[in-house]
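Chains adopt folds. We examine one example:
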Amino acid sequence: NTGLHIFDITDMSNPVEVGFLELLYLAGLDVAYGFVLVTNNSGLSIVDISDPTSPVEVSFIDPQGSIGDVVYKDGFAYMATSGGGIRAINVMNPYYPHLAGFYDAPGYTQKLAVDGNYAYLATGGSTGLRVVDISNPYSMNEVAYFTTGGYNPNINDVSVDDGHVYVTDSGRGV
C-alpha cells in the first residue's frame, strides 16, 4: 500500500505495523512533536500521530514546485524543491502551516541537510552544493557554493556531521 506506515519496534525481532495512512507519491518525511511531515510531488502533508494506530492528516500546503526531501528544525519544515532551492514552511501551528520564505537555487535540489543555521542543498544538473543561511527563514540567502569538480557533477545526497559535509556525486561517489 502506498502511504505512511507506522511500525512498533519495541521488539526489534518482531516489528509490527500498527498504523497506516494512504498518501500518494511520497518523497520525504521527518518527525516532530507528535506529527509527521510528509512530502510528495505537490506539497507537504502534516500528519497527527498522537495515536500511532490512527494517523490523521491535519493539513496540507502546496508551496509551489515539486517537493522532495524535508527536514524539521525549530518550528519550520525545510523542503527541497526540484525546481531548485529550498522552501521554509512555518509549522508552529501544524493545523495552519504557511510559507515563510524561499531561496531559489540553480538546477534541482534533490536532498538537504540542516545543521545549526545552515541548510546544505544537494543540487543536481552541474550546480554543486549550495549552503544557505536559514537563521531567518523569512529571508534566506546563499553563503557558500562548491562542487566536486570535473565534467557534469551531480550531487544527489548530503549529510553534515562534526564540522564535515559529506556528499554523493552520482558520477564520483562519496
